[in-house]
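Let us practice reading a record.
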Amino acid sequence: MPGRGHVNVEPGVRSDAIQTIRDEKALSIWQSFRLYRKAVFWSLTLSTCIVMEGFDMIILNSLYVLPSFQHQFGTLNAHGQYSISAKWQSILSNLALVGQILGLILSGYVVEKIGYKYTLIAGLVLLAASITAPFCAKTMSTLAVGQILCGIPWGMFQTTTTTYASEVTPLHLRPFLTTYVNFCWCLGQLISSLVIKRVSSLPGSLPYKIPFASQWIWIVPVITAIFFAPESPWWLIRQNRIEDARKALMRLTTRHYADHSNGKAAVNMMFYTNELEKSQSGGIDYQDCFTGTDLRRTEISCNVWAIQIVCGGSLMGYSAYFYQRAGLDNSDAFSFQAAQFALGMIGTMFSWFLMRHFGRRTLYLFGQSAGLLLLLAMGISSLFLRGKSSGWTAGSFLLAFTFFYDATVGPVCYSLVAEISSTRLRNKTIVLARVWYNILGIAAGSLTPQMLNPDAWNWAGKAAFVYAATGAVMIVWTYFRLPETKDRSFTELDILFGDRVRARDFDAASCHLASRSDPSTGSE
């Protein structure tokens, strides 16, 4: 009976896998782009869903400070002004996260049945219908229903785009296309901030209805583009559709590459990797993410994403609030918020250079450490400053935090979760990691408004101390548990995890794929 790691393949498949990995590593970034330029285009196209989601998800937090929205949905506070209570802010944020969790779990099943592109199309159709609820809402209850309904397709988008990007692009382009997802988040949030700034002075309900209605503009063009996209060849391999995988590869690369031996060898490499993973675990259900070597991979993926919450990332959405406390009017506060998201885009582009030279693990440790220092500075300053000075200082620290976050932890997370997981369980592992992220997001979404709201705990900038403490704990975890995945193929990562190499040794460890036993050839 074959043992663990025993790969039963036809003669030549393993040698094709070895050669394909060597050839891929030998390519420069420019050569990879020329060979896979169509894959880059399709990956960018599908990631447009995240621009939409970034646009959608920031809308409600931004509307809380608009007078027309406050008057329609808020209540009179002790100062005789309409406002949205911290309780309702938490409820709405958390219901959206609950919807996302449902969408994430659903997508884990749906993707395995119908593939990435049709899962995204189904999510977009569902979103088009769900937007009706917040657009027509006149009460908080209707808004709450809308948050759950919209959250379901948002959850479907969150992991499907990242997984697709990781599977259609080669080794040297993978970090750019997976971290581009973070760029799309920032771009969507920037567009949303600019739209709300533009309409904030309009009369009646227009300032909050126009942003909701704007979401419909995206849907038909994006569905049309995704319909013509090729499916991931890795997904087709898992469905045992080998010829379809070769055809998909042809649509993702230059015709010369796909038509000749290189294309056949690339498909054989995918097939070999799939068989290797079947020998290590076998299953493709959620429970298989918690067995064998996949348990460690699931733990790492979950905590990599959790770090985005516990290191203080959830505070970034409240910069407009701090600037309002500093005395800025709504328009100027939204201008600073837009600048924050622009900084995030610049930081993401900077990360593309940094990852090439420093790798993922180093950037994660540096980003967490820089964020910790900024949070401590923000918290300490709030102990000595009051009123407008406190608001200005906290908001400015958040701008600096945003840049460092989006140059390190923010985008690098997407590259890590796409590489850490095995190819057979990638979608489900990333789903579980994002579900854990959203569960922590519910906790942060409940506590952060209470920390900041003047009618609740009113901690203001001192809330940074909470995230500094949790962030410090995760720096220790990162040092001991997060491996370096830079310049590693999926097959090599399978071997390193299968050999139980320590996280700190991944960078220097050797992968002797050529010496692995191949029963079909009898070689040792």
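A brief commentary: The longest strand covers residues 75-76.
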